[in-house]
Each structure stands twice: as structure tokens, then as C-alpha cells.
Design brief:
Blueprint: H1 4-20, E1 27-31, E2 36-40, E3 47-51, H2 58-77, E4 86-91, E5 97-104, H3 112-118, H4 120-137, E6 151-154, E7 157-160, H5 180-183, H6 188-205, H7 209-222, H8 229-236, H9 246-277
Antiparallel strand pairs: 1-2, 2-3, 3-5, 4-5, 6-7
Helix pairs in contact: 3-4, 4-7, 4-8, 7-8, 7-9
Length: 292
């Protein structure tokens, strides 16, 4: 995986981008809800480096790594093939730790979004495989974010690669992951209400097989693959109660788009406040707009 000195160099460029507000020196592969995915080296990326919100201490970083390791072990036991993933860390100037989930960059033609866009029997089988996995794996203890952009078809096998959020609960039903990681990029005044009224519902969706498949179908709209909603609904027909419908898929998509759109707008407003009024470095890189 990525050498220590290369990771430190990558983080130095991230810090420069945070200070300047210009991320053009980075090869940004994507923006997740809690992570920034950077390709390294920039010119010809070999690694996809998923940068999480910074951690205050080694103990906090260790706790995250242990939770992720436990999640990967459970997924393996349940038959989910996961892209090889390592957790790396490096210091940042304020004394905190930048933590990265690092994977090898996957061939673009292996990504599930590309596979489905090409169509045919392979696309139908891939979507059916995701539905089967969601229904067989997801329960109150183990969750999945099964939207299409989190999967690839490697050597003919369905492969899950977005594991930065280990959706694992303890025996008492509590989240193993410190969910404050979801709130780190929000203004402090909003963290309490979001923690209380929004986050529990978001987390619960990942632990309900029906909701996971609904999210898979709804996110096909975001990927401009609406024509494949029907095959997903056919694959889950008779396997969830109540049955999923086109109307529910579109309603869920609109609701999800409103929620995440509002959160992104709040983050952008806070970034403007921190940079222009308080004259502080805003510690996150945000997309101009998440297309949903």
C-alpha cells in the first residue's frame, strides 16, 4: 500500500488545499458523505485514499480501525467480497491525526455503475446479486450501504469497496462506530438537533434489508440509470413486506436529495462564515454541488 512518505506528501497537499480553498493540485475521485476520495499519485493514480474527518488522538483512531477491522471480518464471514483495504494515518499541523482508508484504484470498466450502463445480462445479474446480498447480509447487527456506486465486478465477482463507514452494532444494539464522525463537518449549533432527529433514522436505514434495497433502486436515478429500477423491483418481489413500488422509489429519492442537499448547503454556508468572517481555515473540502 501507499508508502508513509507518500501519504505525508498527500496530506501536505490536502492542507495546502484547505488553506487556499483550491483543490486543483489534488486528483479528487469523489466526495462521500463523510470522506474525500483522492487518487494518488495525482498524474496516474494507483491508490484511492479516502480521507476521513481528523481524529483527536491515537486512541480515537485506534477505535475506528478496530471497528472497521471487525466489520470487514463480519462481512467476510457473511460472504461479502470486499476490496483489500488498509487504514493509514499521518499527523496534521494542529496535532490531530488524518486517517485514510486506502485501496488500489479499480479499473473504471469494473465499476458497477459502468457495468450496468453497458447493459445486458451481466448488468441484470449484478443488480440481482446486490439485492441478494442485501437481503442475506443486512440485519440489526450488520448494515450495508448498497447503492450501485459502492460496488465493482472484479474477476467476475461482486466486490464491495465503500467500507469507510463500518455499519456494525454491538450486542446491545448501539453503534460500534462513533457516529460523531457524521457530524464533524456541521456547524456546532446544528450537531445536537441532527444527532437527535436525523442521524438515528439514517443509521437505521442501513440495517433494514428493505430500506437498503429501496436506497439501491432510488440511487439509480442519481446515476441516470432509471431504466434499471424495474429489474431491481423484480429481483426483490415477494421478498420484502410491504412490496416496493416505483412511486416509493421516486419519493425516497426526492426525500434523500432534500436531506443531503440541505446538509450540503449548511456546510457551504459554514465554510463561507469561517473563511470570510472569522478568517479561519475551513477544515473540509466540499464539492460545489452533489448531483442527486
Amino acid at each position: 500500500m501507499i508508502p508513509t512518505d507518500e501519504l505525508a506528501l498527500l496530506e501536505s497537499r490536502v492542507q495546502r488545499a484547505l488553506c487556499s480553498g483550491d483543490d486543483s493540485a489534488l486528483r479528487v475521485l469523489g466526495y462521500g458523505e463523510i470522506s474525500l476520495v483522492i487518487g494518488w499519485p495525482r498524474e496516474s493514480p494507483r491508490w484511492a485514499c479516502k480521507r476521513l474527518p481528523t481524529f483527536a488522538s491515537s486512541a480515537d483512531a485506534d477505535a475506528y480501525t478496530e471497528t472497521l477491522d471487525a466489520y470487514l471480518e463480519v462481512l467476510d464471514r457473511r460472504g461479502v467480497r470486499v476490496a483489500p483495504t488498509t487504514v493509514r494515518r499521518t499527523a496534521v499541523p494542529d496535532g490531530r491525526l488524518a486517517v485514510y482508508c486506502v485501496q488500489e484504484v479499480l479499473p473504471s470498466d469494473s465499476l458497477a455503475v459502468e457495468v450496468v450502463a453497458r447493459g445486458g445480462r451481466t448488468a441484470r445479474d449484478l443488480l440481482g446479486g446486490i439485492v441478494d446480498t442485501a437481503l442475506e447480509v443486512v440485519d440489526d447487527h450488520v448494515g450495508l450501504d448498497a447503492q450501485l456506486s459502492n460496488w465493482a465486478l472484479m474477476e467476475g465477482q461482486l466486490t464491495y469497496f465503500d467500507v469507510t463507514t463500518p455499519l456494525l452494532r454491538g450486542p446491545d444494539g448501539s453503534e460500534r462506530l462513533d457516529t460523531e464522525i457524521f457530524l464533524a463537518s456541521l456547524p456546532p449549533v446544528l450537531r445536537g438537533p441532527v444527532r437527535r432527529f436525523v442521524l438515528p433514522g439514517i443509521m437505521q436505514r442501513y440495517h433494514r434489508p428493505r430500506s437498503v434495497v429501496l436506497d439501491l433502486a432510488a440511487n439509480l436515478i442519481k446515476e441516470d440509470l432509471e431504466g434499471w429500477i424495474g429489474p431491481v423491483l423484480a429481483a426483490v418481489e415477494g421478498r420484502v413486506d410491504p412490496p416496493l413500488s416505483d412511486a416509493e422509489v421516486y419519493s425516497d429519492y426526492r426525500s434523500d436529495a432534500r436531506t443531503w442537499g440541505l446538509l450540503q448547503a449548511v456546510r457551504r454556508a459554514d465554510r463561507l462564515w469561517q473563511r470570510k468572517v472569522r478568517r479561519r481555515t475551513y477544515p473540509f473540502l466540499l464539492p460545489a454541488r452533489i448531483q442527486r
